[in-house]
Amino acid sequence: MNSRSVIVTGATGFIGSNLVFSLIRKGFDVHILVRDTSDLSILGNIVESCKVHIYNGSIVDLKKTFSIVKPSHVFHLASLFLAQHDDSNITDLLESNIIFSTHVVEAMVSEGVPFLINTGTSWQHYTEGDFNPVNLYAATKQAFESILEYYIEARGLKVISLILFDTYGPNDPRKKILSLLNDVSKSGDTISMSEGEQMIDLVYIDDVISAYLSAYKNILQQIVGHSRYGVATNRPLSLKTLVFEFEQVLGVKVNVNWGKRPYRNREVMVPWLGSQKLLNWEVRVELDEGLIRSFG
Fold it and tell me: pLDDT band at residue 2, thresholds of 50, 70 and 90?
């Protein structure tokens, strides 16, 4: 087993692709696990520096991949995110966030891969407490963590789950709030929003990737089977304040009709504050610097 050989799922997403870039720069032997329909364009030329493996839904074939690669760690970032679901996408949520994820872990323990860096969401905690899912997406993330407990207790797997809050950075293709503000500031259009009282905890992409790299090191000394750490600033600000900061830092105007839209069902008004801090990790990029790097 090669301690510099790792498998990354979700490499075609914003966070996953940035993690791949960082791992390649640091000299890791990076293998990415994708579907045959995955769009690899976000990886650009860096895809030539990693090895691509296709997941076709077969656990047998997946075990063969792990047997060949022999990684020491798996970074599991792949998931299907849906703020709200309907009848047409329940199966997709279950297949991506539970079935595929369980296939990965089954292949890991079958081939003796000891360490998993998993990705969770603060939306698993709608209010303070152990578990209260905001939506079905968050419930599937929690369901997978419950499945992990079997592999931890019965098969000796070691897991760190990084609980992500809001993330942002340059060239983010996701339709997130900052990208929306940037588009509106350029077009001069007016956007309708809620009253803007919901609090948001934004973490810049470099700090997010730093958390994954710290987890890679920390898990080697981890005694307990599963540790969960929040990747958060713990300094949330309201949506209305965020818009003001966006305008002030970047010197732009964002036209907003406040109060014209209702809050979503189970809107997160205050982010979860109960997470444990990851050892040897801290936020280094403050919001004003992150906004300039992303949109300046």
Answer: low
